[in-house]
Amino acid sequence: MRKTIVAAFAAAALLSIGCVSTVSDTHTFALSYGKDSVAGRYPRTLDQVYQAAAAVITVNGVIMNEYIPHDNTNAVRSLLGRVNDRKVWVRVESIDPKVTQVDVQARTKWGTRDLDLVHEIEKEIALKLVQ
User: 69 versus 94: which is more confidently predicted?
Assistant: First the structure.
């Protein structure tokens, strides 16, 4: 009986493992699904918001990759960083010439989401833009 219950839990765990899309249009390993990103809109240019996002990631951790998704126009930039042993994806997208949106997403190395870190990074980007 115990073996059956353990086997059922193991099967359920294996079925829940998978990949999720990131805000930068890539995929990553995930154990938990659900809301794992936060968006914010700011009345600034794309370059100003991207520089603020890169500065925040650099202060809190390290930037691992910066890129412009090729399936979009030049109005989108993304970066991948590591903060507190978590992967953090930041996507900066120009909504119109005066408004820019930032999407921040974070996952632990075990594939679980970290909404506290996501909110913290997004707030720090907003504070960096005010300075």
Answer: 94
pLDDT at 98 over 60: yes
Q: Which of 61, 49, 59, 70 is nearest to 88 (CA)?
A: 61
pTM for the whole structure: 0.78
Query: DSSP 3-state assignment of 29?
Result: strand
> Domains in the chain, please, with CATH?
2-130 (3.30.310.80)
Cα–Cα distance for residue pair 95/99, rounded to 1 Å:
6
Could you read off the pLDDT of 38-53 as tens digits, one per residue?
Answer: 899 999 999 999 999 9
- The Cα–Cα gap between 97 and 79 comes to 21
According to DSSP, residue 98 is labeled T
Helices (H), the chain: 2-16, 46-60, 115-130
Token code pair at residue 112: 């679980």
List beta partners, residue 80.
65, 89
Token pair belonging to 45: 């240019």
**What does the pLDDT average to over 87-94?**
91
What's the sign of the alpha-carbon dihedral 84, 51, 25, 94?
positive
